[in-house]
Design a protein that fits this description.
- The chain is mainly α.
- It has helices at 18-22, 80-97, 104-123, 162-167, 171-186, 189-195, 202-215, 219-225, 228-238, 242-259, 265-283, 295-305, 315-320, 333-344, 350-366, 373-387, 391-407, 411-428, 432-446, 452-465, 469-482, 487-499, 503-516, 520-533, 538-560, 563-567, and strands spanning 28-32, 37-41, 139-143, 150-152, 157-161.
- The protein has a three-stranded mixed sheet with strand order 3-5-4, sandwiched between helices. The chain has a two-stranded antiparallel ribbon with strand order 1-2.
- Helix 14 (333-344) packs parallel to helix 16 (373-387) and helix 16 (373-387) runs antiparallel to helix 17 (391-407).
- The termini are far apart.
Length: 571
Amino acid sequence: MTQRGIGQGITREGVHRSYDKAMNRIFSRNVVGRQAAVCLACLVALVNSIGLAAPAFAQTRVGSEQLPQLGEADADGLSLQAERRLGRQVFQEFLRAGVVTDDPELEDYLSAQSARLLQAALVQGHLQPGQSIEPGEFRFFAVRDPAINAFALPGGFIGIHTGLMARSQSESELMSVLAHEIGHVSQRHISRQFGQRRQSSAVMIAAALLAAMAASNSSDAAMGIMSLGQTVAVQDQLAFSREAEREADRVGLGLLQEAGFDPQAMVSLFQKLLRAGEFYDSAAPNWVRSHPLTTERIADVQTRLTQIRPESGSSRFSAAMSSPAQREVKDTLEFRWLRQRIDALSDRSVDGLAKSALRLKKAFDETRPQSADRSALAYAMAWVTLQQRQFPPALDWLSRAEVMAREEGELDWAAPLLASARLEILLAAGQLQDAAEVMPSALEAGQQSISQRKLARQTIRLMQGLSRYPQALDFAKSYTNRWPDDLQGWALKAQVASAAGQQTLAHWATAERYRRAGALNAALEQLQLARKANDADFSVMSVIDARLAGLRREIQNEKNQSPSTKLSERN
């Protein structure tokens, strides 16, 4: 297979490929085991590595109008530090509630594509170093929920419901929602609203959002999460003002245009949300509608779209819009394949998987042979049959997807997703030797792709399954160094260390996992157990002692600082 060139941002169709540019400055590290030397690299500094050109602003550019900057910091807002801390607290509540989807390929896809929007925000001045949340501080995460929705937390934490990914008909539709949420963060709407209500706590806010998700399935479940009194207390924080929504729309349109996405997609996505609102209104109280959509808002976006001139945007966007025949902005293969997989696995019950298999098979048979959709359908079928533990059919569907991707000239882009799926099937089937044979080529195919982190996880699992504990531990240490916020990485490290008989390291890894999830007391207990195990050398025990002291201070600071005190910090 031909290795795709790093730094190529345009494919033969002229479609912008964010992944090469986003990964251009990412460094890698070799981890040498007794059997092989394998390269593990990380997805870091995505935003700094894109390097989009900054064309001169035109008067007709979306986002250049001199509207009031509602998000400018003032005395009522939170400091950037307080905003980031508050957002992290809410996010940790989500982690502890188990609503954040552990899907590294999806998360890294969202991060890589959103990096284009964040770079656009820098170019247009919506994000300014030292005066706003830094691009590298944004975190995009997926929430397993069928609702067509997304939300922004303080500090740049942006959640995307899997239902939004599955129901977006184009990549630009999906990005239009993320651009809107980035608009809220960049204009500091959330900071201002939280800052004006000192008595609100992060836990109460998280409970409201969790209740909103539960309400899409059951209003009783929502009431079980949160009482009516708490709901009233956070109602104003969840509902943005009409002016803030209009400003987020305006900023989002400008980001879409600058990043090379189709801004027309914002209207089509908003129309879907408006129709879906009938469902939300019948299943949940009004405060669930944190982003109330009106026909006036949609009309306002449509009016702004009429002001767009192709020459006012980036060169890629201008080329895409230069003639009716070229007006469609192409979707990436990663979007098409991930969307089908997420939709197919939205219901993992026995009946749900059976329905997905029937639907996918029917769509596959009815789709014309030369359509690019067939490879995505075959890829999704491989995952459905894997969940049904039908391993030979899963490998067969994956082989079909590979053949079709090759025929479509997209095998280079499909190779990482194919490699991680094949390894997942082989690991689930217990075919460890077969997995070991394909692992080196899989890691090579996955370098600087959205599958890299998942393939690194699979490497650890494979080495552990083959009882190659020193190698597995080397991989696990490298993994947590590269992706320190990946909780599953710490869990794998703890498992491998325990299997290798290194209990101090196992407790230490578990403590790091708890600490990063915000469970500080549980982390303290694990560090104390690590100290008692005392089966590591002096340098490791010294580090653990330092971690214990630091964690005790952190817990004491949390006790000393009440939620109202945290929220009342000033710039």
